[in-house]
Amino acid sequence: MKSARKTKPERHRTFEERLSDRLRSRKIEDVKLRARQAQGKIRRFVNTNLRKQEMVAALALRRGECNRCGACCELLFKCPFLKKNPDGTSLCGIYDNRPNSCRLFPIEKRDIQEVRGSCSYYFIERPIRLGKAS
Ligand code: SF4
Ligand code: SF4
Question: Whole-prediction pTM value?
Answer without folding.
Answer: 0.79
